[in-house]
């Protein structure tokens, strides 16, 4: 009964999601972590420090789905559980792996009830499914925001392996959104902006507030579609799912698809001109008014209150 | 380039669903159904490739009850040429769906298979990736741009860090994200014309694929309700609330 977790990483840094996945499945058995990619020495070293990890395996990969899945498939017979976070890489790779192994995966898990029992949201989080998986091996993706992170302080061995891979796909370009805000999917505080903000210039207001609070920035689908915010800021059923301690929704009415992405937030604050907006009704605290007046005032008030993160 | 588009009939995405009190599922009787939004983007992408002279025949396939004919007709009205309904009243798992689609791919030999990235009912986001595995084809999921370059596709994908572009040789599998295009509403003459396009109905059992579920769905339950909130009257009250939440958070 052992587990292989495929690490998420970007730009040579281990994603905070991986520590949460490790913590989530810690009770299922000993954990080995697979780091796929190029120049992953620092990522592997970070993973080796996480509590519960018994070994880190490093393998070269060119960053394509068909290539990555070949490597995981080679290692698969050794493990009972093959697990990754339900981020864009895990969503892309794990169903392909599952079909290769003739297994039905259980994805987007938000609760682990036992070795073979899991809960996962359906219908944009408006219903929860309790599933038993009695297959001989289990392919899982975990919604990282639903779990706490594993502690550090470990020093597990790192082993490099060489798996020859033939990938038909080629990665030819990457375009990253430049931002020095925290990782949206795992941030403690998120400030979200809706289409009511208007031009992308106005999103600068949100960025100022986010900076003050040490918060990540999110946006609605409508705001992303309108070109006001980059696609990787999208929060909702089809974007990122967040579960911060505090979510501040600015000019967001609260379409069902957006609410799906924020249901895990512990506290929700809404700032909106419409007292009838669904998100205002859902919020723990709402302030009704013109966001262009409120936000600069709020930044000043927070400054006065000595908030600076 | 021959294109196969797989589509799903789901509870309309604007309907607020209701979980049955006995925990057996979500109430779907008497509820408005329509084509899964992501599937519409996939159909639109196929029609646009065809209009640009890069696609030839567009075949639509859907798996579901007889009533799923509706969504196939919608796709035919958008500009697809021919439809196949694989009829079953069972709620199939994504692995079984992918196996049925793999049989259709073997029969039809399309150069490109387009699907929506996920269905908004079970939110699985599996089938395109599974079909790519079963047909041993390269995949590009979550597509926001598709360009035909010689015998390959250059697909821009929406990923957690921004976007990335992959080149995949045909034949290939692509799943559509929301910003790929704006699906058209078919004009009435197209809707009328769709009725005369070929639509084959074939029972799922005919394909010789194991359809038995692998997972046991124990129950479906509603999510926890949130406590009712309050409205504050001023920005300073709001700032005080946020400051106290942050100090509680930091105390932990």
Automatic annotation (TrEMBL), chain A:
<dbReference type="GO" id="GO:0033539">
    <property type="term" value="P:fatty acid beta-oxidation using acyl-CoA dehydrogenase"/>
</dbReference>
<dbReference type="Pfam" id="PF01012">
    <property type="entry name" value="ETF"/>
</dbReference>
<dbReference type="InterPro" id="IPR014730">
    <property type="entry name" value="ETF_a/b_N"/>
</dbReference>
<keyword id="KW-0274">FAD</keyword>
<comment type="function">
    <text>The electron transfer flavoprotein serves as a specific electron acceptor for other dehydrogenases. It transfers the electrons to the main respiratory chain via ETF-ubiquinone oxidoreductase (ETF dehydrogenase).</text>
</comment>
<dbReference type="InterPro" id="IPR014731">
    <property type="entry name" value="ETF_asu_C"/>
</dbReference>
<feature type="binding site">
    <location>
        <begin position="220"/>
        <end position="221"/>
    </location>
    <ligand>
        <name>FAD</name>
    </ligand>
</feature>
<protein>
    <recommendedName>
        <fullName>Electron transfer flavoprotein subunit alpha</fullName>
    </recommendedName>
</protein>
<dbReference type="InterPro" id="IPR033947">
    <property type="entry name" value="ETF_alpha_N"/>
</dbReference>
<keyword id="KW-0285">Flavoprotein</keyword>
<keyword id="KW-0813">Transport</keyword>
<dbReference type="Pfam" id="PF00766">
    <property type="entry name" value="ETF_alpha"/>
</dbReference>
<feature type="binding site">
    <location>
        <begin position="251"/>
        <end position="258"/>
    </location>
    <ligand>
        <name>FAD</name>
    </ligand>
</feature>
<feature type="binding site">
    <location>
        <position position="272"/>
    </location>
    <ligand>
        <name>FAD</name>
    </ligand>
</feature>
<dbReference type="InterPro" id="IPR001308">
    <property type="entry name" value="ETF_a/FixB"/>
</dbReference>
<dbReference type="GO" id="GO:0009055">
    <property type="term" value="F:electron transfer activity"/>
</dbReference>
<feature type="binding site">
    <location>
        <begin position="234"/>
        <end position="238"/>
    </location>
    <ligand>
        <name>FAD</name>
    </ligand>
</feature>
<feature type="domain" description="Electron transfer flavoprotein alpha/beta-subunit N-terminal">
    <location>
        <begin position="3"/>
        <end position="175"/>
    </location>
</feature>
<comment type="similarity">
    <text>Belongs to the ETF alpha-subunit/FixB family.</text>
</comment>
<dbReference type="GO" id="GO:0050660">
    <property type="term" value="F:flavin adenine dinucleotide binding"/>
</dbReference>
<dbReference type="InterPro" id="IPR029035">
    <property type="entry name" value="DHS-like_NAD/FAD-binding_dom"/>
</dbReference>
<keyword id="KW-0249">Electron transport</keyword>
From TrEMBL, chain B:
<dbReference type="GO" id="GO:0046395">
    <property type="term" value="P:carboxylic acid catabolic process"/>
</dbReference>
<dbReference type="InterPro" id="IPR033948">
    <property type="entry name" value="ETF_beta_N"/>
</dbReference>
<dbReference type="Pfam" id="PF01012">
    <property type="entry name" value="ETF"/>
</dbReference>
<dbReference type="GO" id="GO:0009055">
    <property type="term" value="F:electron transfer activity"/>
</dbReference>
<dbReference type="InterPro" id="IPR014729">
    <property type="entry name" value="Rossmann-like_a/b/a_fold"/>
</dbReference>
<keyword id="KW-0249">Electron transport</keyword>
<comment type="subunit">
    <text>Heterodimer of an alpha and a beta subunit.</text>
</comment>
<comment type="function">
    <text>The electron transfer flavoprotein serves as a specific electron acceptor for other dehydrogenases. It transfers the electrons to the main respiratory chain via ETF-ubiquinone oxidoreductase (ETF dehydrogenase).</text>
</comment>
<dbReference type="InterPro" id="IPR014730">
    <property type="entry name" value="ETF_a/b_N"/>
</dbReference>
<comment type="similarity">
    <text>Belongs to the ETF beta-subunit/FixA family.</text>
</comment>
<protein>
    <recommendedName>
        <fullName>Electron transfer flavoprotein subunit beta</fullName>
    </recommendedName>
</protein>
<dbReference type="InterPro" id="IPR012255">
    <property type="entry name" value="ETF_b"/>
</dbReference>
<feature type="domain" description="Electron transfer flavoprotein alpha/beta-subunit N-terminal">
    <location>
        <begin position="23"/>
        <end position="211"/>
    </location>
</feature>
<keyword id="KW-0813">Transport</keyword>
